[in-house]
């Protein structure tokens, strides 16, 4: 079997979605590297990476555009990856969108096994095609630490009467997506609840915080009646369960100011409730934002 046949066998294993066959294509110390996987994966780590891609893109396939052997066992293969995101990726719900990612593999063959595969592609292309936001930022600068946030807004202009705040610290990087998914399911269940106004989720490293606005301090009690929130709380308090530490609370605001909006005609900031949609200058006011 020559180098080109070894490479074709390897690429075919990807299209058959056969993790064992992919690993079997490599020599005992063979390595796999690409911009997403990182450097020098071996054995079971290669299989786990492939299975993760197939979980996110169950119909994943590679279309080989060209392949050439340099005569010394190095095969350069140009390909296009096709797939539809119908499974979870990065702990996020499926987008249902399809991707078309061009890339290339340099496959070094020794005998009938692969010594190394080094893949090259634009690592931002897939998130962009799935319409996922990509933010490049440091973990920290001086006293500041950075993370990500998510918001759900009903559009209600109701002034909040209470905020339920939950903070939880994950035990590991692997636990963060699990907690995030429970939060996502919980907020979906909160949307039709009486008194729900809006929700914000914040993740900074292993620390995760949710802030929910309600019309009154009685409304958060609905979360104790069942559903994902009650399930998550049971796991949190159970032995060996979810998270390293955490706190839940309900806050009642002492004072919340009026919603104000800037008049586009005269530039003044106006109390939207008192103005009733019209500035003193006579111009109609833009719609005010929601409190939360």
Relevant terms:
292 residues, alpha+beta, Nuclear Transport Factor 2, Chain: A, Alpha-Beta Plaits, 3 domains, six-stranded mixed sheet, five-stranded antiparallel sheet, 7 helices, 15 strands, 23% helix, 35% strand, elongated
What is the end-to-end distance? Answer: 65 Å
**Biggest beta sheet attributes:** 6 strands, mixed
CATH topology of the largest domain: Nuclear Transport Factor 2, Chain: A
Could you give the order of the helices and strands?
Answer: HHEEHEEEEHEEEEHEEHEEEH
Count of individual domains:
3
Biggest sheet: strand arrangement: 2-1-6-5-4-3
Overall number of strands: 15
Describe the structure.
With 292 residues, the chain is an alpha+beta fold. Helix content is 23%, strand content 35%. It starts with a helix and ends in a 17-residue tail after the last helix.
What does this entry show, briefly?
This protein has seven helices and 15 strands.
């Amino acid at each position: 079997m020559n180098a080109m046949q070894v490479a074709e066998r390897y690429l075919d294993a990807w299209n058959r979605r056969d993790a064992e066959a992919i690993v079997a294509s490599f020599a005992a110390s063979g390595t796999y590297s690409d911009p997403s996987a990182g450097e020098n994966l071996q054995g079971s780590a290669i299989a786990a990476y492939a299975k993760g891609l197939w979980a996110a893109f169950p119909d994943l396939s590679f279309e080989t555009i060209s392949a050439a052997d340099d005569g010394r066992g190095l095969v350069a293969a140009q390909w296009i990856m096709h797939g539809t995101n119908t499974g979870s990726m990065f702990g996020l719900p499926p987008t249902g969108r399809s991707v078309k990612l061009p890339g290339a593999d340099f496959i070094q063959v020794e005998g009938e096994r692969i010594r190394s595969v080094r893949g090259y592609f634009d690592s931002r292309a897939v998130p962009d095609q799935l319409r996922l936001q990509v933010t490049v930022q440091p973990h920290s600068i001086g006293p500041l630490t950075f993370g990500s946030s998510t918001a759900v807004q009903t559009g209600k202009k109701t002034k909040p009467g209470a905020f339920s705040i939950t903070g939880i610290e994950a035990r590991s990087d692997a636990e963060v997506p699990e907690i995030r998914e429970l939060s996502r399911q919980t907020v979906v269940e909160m949307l039709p609840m009486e008194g729900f106004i809006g929700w914000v989720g914040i993740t900074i490293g292993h620390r995760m915080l949710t802030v929910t606005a309600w019309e009154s301090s009685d409304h958060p009690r609905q979360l104790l009646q069942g559903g994902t929130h009650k399930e998550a709380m049971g796991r949190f308090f159970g032995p060996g369960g979810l998270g390293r530490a955490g706190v839940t609370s309900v806050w009642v605001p002492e004072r919340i100011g009026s919603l104000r909006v800037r008049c586009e005609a005269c530039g003044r900031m106006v109390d939207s409730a008192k103005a009733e949609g019209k500035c003193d200058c006579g111009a109609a006011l833009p719609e005010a934002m929601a409190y939360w």
